[in-house]
Amino acid sequence: MTKITEGVYFIPGQDDFIPDSHVYVVGEPSSLDLSLVDVGLMGKAEYKIESLRKTGMELKAIKRIIMTHTHLDHIGCFANILKKIPEAELWVHTLEATPLEKGDERTVYGMDMFKTMCQAQFGLKSGVFSFQVHRKLEGGESLNLGGMDWEVLHIPGHSMGSIALYHRMKKILIPGDVIYADHAIGRFDLYGAKASDLKKSLLRLAELEVDILLPGHNQIVKNLPRGYIQKTARQWEPYLV
Ligand SMILES: [Zn+2]
Ligand SMILES: [Zn+2]
Known about the structure:
Blueprint: E1 2-5, E2 8-11, E3 23-26, E4 34-37, H1 46-54, E5 62-66, H2 72-75, H3 78-84, E6 89-93, H4 94-102, H5 106-109, H6 112-122, E7 135-137, E8 142-145, E9 148-154, E10 163-167, E11 172-174, H7 195-206, E12 212-213, H8 228-236
Parallel strand pairs: 4-5, 5-6, 6-7, 11-12
Antiparallel strand pairs: 1-2, 2-3, 3-4, 8-9, 9-10, 10-11
Helix pairs in contact: 7-8
The protein binds zinc ion (2 copies).
């Protein structure tokens, strides 16, 4: 685990047969009110828990897990994380919380072919991704997480209930799989995705001042160049119709 800035820590994903999402830990450690943003793929809980322990963070201090969205590579190891941190709440955008509570796994797997493939690979039964959601986010909330103020932005397109967390003062954006480093953006061919929504979401993010970009996969970027999100949105615009 590495410290990105005061109150924001990074546990890189360990990609396997499919990608594993990064995990961000948000909150001042002294507050004993920490949040995990995403958890990652099946089998990828243990090293992340170990990573938290090694830095001396108390597992009890993790009060909630906030999902940027509920794709398998972000929520796959949630059940295992919950075994270690049973008191933690789960916060998800309402559009993905409702199916998650009903055990409707279409968003989790994204497509039938992928579901069949992953169930075989990981030995998963249908219906294992059914969880109680403690707080359904709408977008527009201002959250105080461990002494830090974060805004929730609903940015659909990659999935229906994708959210970003934004720290306006520190200019930090955690956009899930909506935008990455190297002018890459999230795929928009899975269940619940919509290219035109993704375009709108990118343009919305382009209005924010961002210095630190902390995406769900690949490189993180400190000192993000001015206009990076806008330039990325423009490059992709012809494909996002
Ligand atoms: Zn995703
Ligand atoms: Zn992902």
